[in-house]
Amino acid sequence: MTEALLQIKDLRVYYHVDAGAVRAVDGVSFNLEAGIKLGLVGESGSGKSTMALALMRMIKAPGKIESGQMILDGVDLLQLSEEKMRQTKLMKLSMIPQGAMNSLNPVMRIDKQMMDGLEDHNSLLSKEELTARIQELLTAVDLDPKVAKMYPHELSGGMKQRFGIAQSLIGEPKLIIVDEPTAGLDPGERNRFYNLLTEIGENVVVILSTHIVQDVQELCNNMAIINKGRLLFAGAPTDALHQVKGRIWEKSIAKNEVEEYHASNKVISNKLIAGRPSIHVYSEGDPGNGFVGVEPSLEDVFFSHINGAHNTATA
Q1: Angle of helix 127-140 relative to helix 110-121, nearest 10 degrees?
Q2: What distances in angstroms separate CA 115 from CA 3, 111, 239, one per listed residue?
């Protein structure tokens, strides 16, 4: 078995708020090998983005790492000095934060923005070598080399996302973290983004922090469900689906029946189909009363764990 490239051991991160310290990541552990694409799934405020920031140990992160280990490529990041950490982050870690497409310098050309990053990583390269590297990175993310002479406002949302990936690859990192990667993308750009991340390489760990279950279904060979800082499930999506197979039941009901069904069943989700509520419930056996068994989706897995219906979390 391949040795884990990234090991998270009993990680705890907390926030300072008016009422005191609030733990945002609470005793999370998992291992990831090179080539793994992990979907870190959770609702807003669940702790998934905090974990992404903790993995980067960004100086301006709102949380403080309380305890635990983060071992990347054999190095425990939490034991490094600030200077050594800066060098390690520069060479081994990269992050595309939520809203990155809107954080580009609007008055600086794309090639200049990439040049600044390349100079940090390759201070001994000539200008010609840096220019060639920019062209190489843009081509790698399926952007026309002419984009180098453009400004951010001239790029579509999908082009900005691909540019974000190009920037993240500058230091040839071992770990890339992407926070809410498909927010604001149309279906075509979303599919191109999936394909691009899939092609990044076998020697890189990619972590997606997202609340969009489809992102995980389309891209990831591993997933972790986070809620209130706790790890509820970690493993392959196929294993997650197997755990709830035969336990998800569906029924279309009237709007005035919603509360009644919530009171008498483990309702995990409720969505409108043609203006009428369609509820999914978790049950070990046939709940009767007109419910029909359905093939579970990752969305059913997610809501089963988040709503406490399925309590056999895997760590």
Answers
A1: 110
A2: 35, 6, 44
Q: How far is 112 from 5, CA to CA, in rounded Å?
A: 33
Q: How many CB atoms lie within 10 A of CB 199?
A: 10
Beta bridge partner(s), residue 299: none
Q: What would the pLDDT profile of 31-89 be if each residue is shown by its tens digit?
A: 888 887 888 887 665 555 656 655 554 433 445 677 888 888 888 877 877 777 666 66
Q: How does DSSP classify residue 43?
A: -
How far from the centroid of its chain's Cα atoms is residue 55's Cα?
12
pLDDT in tens, 107-164: 899 988 888 777 666 656 677 888 888 898 898 888 998 999 999 889 888 888 888 8
The stretches of 99-236 forming alpha helices (DSSP H) are 110-121, 127-140, 157-168, 187-198, 213-219
Of 198, 214, 241, which residue constitutes the final position of a domain?
241
Termini Cα distance of the chain? 19
280-290 pLDDT, tens per residue?
999 999 999 99
**Maximal C-alpha separation, the chain:** 73
Q: Which domain holds residue 267?
A: 246-295
Phi, psi for 298 (deg, rounded to 5): -65, -25
Prediction pTM value: 0.76
Contact at 8 Å (CB) between 233 and 301?
yes
> Among 201, 218, 241, where does a domain finish?
241
